Amino acid sequence: MSNQSDLLATCISRPEQLCQLSLKEWDFLIRQARRVSLLPRIAYLAHETGCYQTLPASVVMHLSSAWRVADKQAKVVRFEISNIEKALKQLKSPVVLLKGAAYVAADLPPAKGRIFSDIDFMVPKSDLEMVERYMIRHGWMATHHDEYDQRYYRQWMHELPPMKHTGRGTVVDIHHAILPETARLHPDSEKLLDNIQRVTGYENIYTLSNIDIVLHSATHLFHDGELENGLRDLVDLDALLRHFGEEQKFWDELVERAAELELGRPLYYSLKYCSLVLNTPVPDVVTKAAEALGKPPAVISHLMDTSFKRALKPDHSTCDDGFTPLARWLLYIRSHYLRMPLYLLIPHLLRKALKKHKTEAPLAAIPEIEKP
Predict the structure, then answer these.
(1) How confident is the prediction for the chain on average, in pLDDT?
(2) Cβ–Cβ under 8 Å, residues 208 and 249
(3) Where are the domains of the chain?
(4) Residue 362 reports pLDDT greater than 60
């Protein structure tokens, strides 16, 4: 392949290419995929295309290891979902899984080879205090004990401070909305909760509706400034669109629902970059409707293209050019600007910059397992 910076995206959108890679290309691919948590996905695609058994032993070693880690994490996630349901069994409101946990529980295509850092779920805002008490009783404890951080989460954000289990080390993020209170977009949480669907095998575990799963995934990706796993999240969107898009009803209702929830812009970006990067099949009529609903002015559109075309590649030297660091920095600032007004944003960013060397260690959300 001539363009190594597009190697990973090409192999995901056209997995038959995996059967034709040279060892040098596999070296690039494994390094890139590992940086964006997509190496288990590559292992899954190699199995799906039937070329796994023909790959060099050195490649199989990496793919096998990555797949075992992802498989173990999926089992841990299912175990933790059961524990969350037990902890919240007295809760009368539904517990709605989000993102990766929802993919695993509902056995959706993005779950194949998914790597996790935490488990996200959503409850009505009025139940947050009760949910936090129940979780503490069952071994989860709050993190981010700094007074400012507590105020930041509880007053401005759409979630509680992350909670970490004292015994198992797993981390949960408890949401009451999909965007912060101070964000420029305000999707109605009650409308989201009105359309949830129960997960088979559980009494009070739900996911968002199929369309809302896509819209939340799009919103998360295109409002998040930390895009180290941006391509992984775009691959999730691609898999969701291909899966749900098998029914015409999904496409018929997608743009209308985005308008109802004020999520036209993230939907526009998700359809555009899924098609551009991963060749996701989107009906022309849906593309045009999304453009009419959410396309930004030409200057902003050009700037976003310049930035996202770089940031949605793996954060690896084989994918970077001279403008990549600037593009990532601009999207980081943009994400905060979308989440907070300037009078809150400027002091917040200054505080983060001053405290950078004192930040808490990363949370080991999913337990490590032995390497094969």
Answers:
(1) 90
(2) no
(3) 4-358
(4) no
